Input
Amino acid sequence: MLSRGVGLRGFESHPPHHRYYVVRRLFMLTVIALDENTTISQLKKQVEAFRDERKWTDLDTPRSLAISIVLEAAELLEHFQWDNQTPVLDKVADELADVITYCLGFSIT
Output
C-alpha cells in the first residue's frame, strides 16, 4: 500500500487487521536492516513504539490480534496448499512477517 504512494491518512476508519498490514509493511523495512543479534525484546519494542506513535493501542485486543494471527497463518499456508505448487519465497516471507508481527503485538497486550 505505502509503496504505491498511499499514506497512513484515513486508516483509522479501517479494521485493525488492515492497519497492521501497514505496520507489517513498515516493520519489515526495519527488520531487514537488523542483524542476527537483534532480540525478540527489541522487536517487541519496535512494534509497540510503532503502534503507540499512531495511537492504535485501543485496537490491540487479544481477540482482534488472535484473529489476525490465524488469518495471516492461513495466508501463509495457501502457498503450500498444492503438492505441485512451488512457493514463491518472497511471498512466503511476507506472510511469515505478518504472522510474526501479529504474534509480537499479541505478546505486548
